[in-house]
Amino acid sequence: MQKIKFLQVAIAQDEYNKKLNDFFHCSIGLNLETNELTRIYPVQKSSMYKHCVYDIEVEPMTCRRERSFKPIKMRFLYKIDPQKTNELLNKIEVQSIEKLNELRLSMGIVDVSSKKIIVESNEHEFHDLQLCAFDETVISKPMKRNHAARVRKDIKIKFKCKDTKQGYHELKYHEEHFYLGLERNGKLPAYYDTPKWNRLLIGNLRDCRNIFIGLCLFKSNQ
């Protein structure tokens, strides 16, 4: 068993755990002692929040790849300024999808300077979990509560990549807080649709490990 100082950055999923008979989050963040992307699962709903730092006793997860841990005991330490979170994320090397696959990594940060949102209907439901996961998200949140509580949408982000035949990558984006309020026009909120909002934290699905999903969009320091 070991201890890590963990900064929560994003929620990767909210799924039903049959063994524990309840719903739990998979939380993605930073080990502040190494500044490496780290996965914590299972995490009880509403027990961790973005920009908050926790002291966690953990055990390694055998069903996952790098830096994935099961929490044994957790203690809240303090909350940091969002700008500090952004600075820490910018210290992590930007990778390509090909490089992540080559190194068999399940988490990483990619460049999404050229963004395009495509909204497509599907049968998945995404529930209202942590509305303030992104700074200023309230601006794009719809007024009607029924839309905020449950959205039947799947967003794909396309961004240019000269290393592919089609000239772009396409990522499935299952971050509810990013597309609340985008149901009709499918456009990026104004504060995201700027050159600096060009870094995306991604992670792969546990059951479909060749599919990466977007978890957190943030500004680059460039």
Helical residues, percent: 10-25%
How many domains, in number, for the residues? 2
Rg (CA only)? 17 Å
Discrete helix count = 4
- Overall SS class: mainly beta
Mean pLDDT: 68
Instruction: Sketch the major β-sheet.
Output: 6 strands, mixed
- Tell me the number of strands: 13
Helix-strand pattern = EEEEEHHEEEHEEEHEE
Strand content: 35-45%
Structural account:
It is a single chain. The protein has 222 residues and is mainly β. It folds into two domains: 2-83, OB fold (Dihydrolipoamide Acetyltransferase, E2P), CATH 2.40.50; 94-218, no CATH class. Helix content is 10%, strand content 43%. The protein has a six-stranded mixed beta sheet. Strands 1-2-3-5-4 form a five-stranded mixed β-barrel. The longest helix has 8 residues, at 82-89. The chain is globular. The N and C termini lie far apart (39 Å).
Summarize the structure.
The protein contains four helices and 13 strands.
Topology summary:
Layout: E1 2-17, E2 22-31, E3 36-44, E4 52-60, E5 68-79, H1 82-89, H2 97-102, E6 107-111, E7 116-120, E8 126-127, H3 145-149, E9 150-151, E10 154-160, E11 168-173, H4 176-179, E12 199-204, E13 212-218
Parallel strand pairs: 3-5, 11-13
Antiparallel strand pairs: 1-2, 1-4, 2-3, 4-5, 6-12, 7-10, 8-9, 10-11, 12-13
Keywords:
single chain, 222 residues, mainly beta, OB fold (Dihydrolipoamide Acetyltransferase, E2P), 2 domains, 5-stranded mixed β-barrel, 10% helix
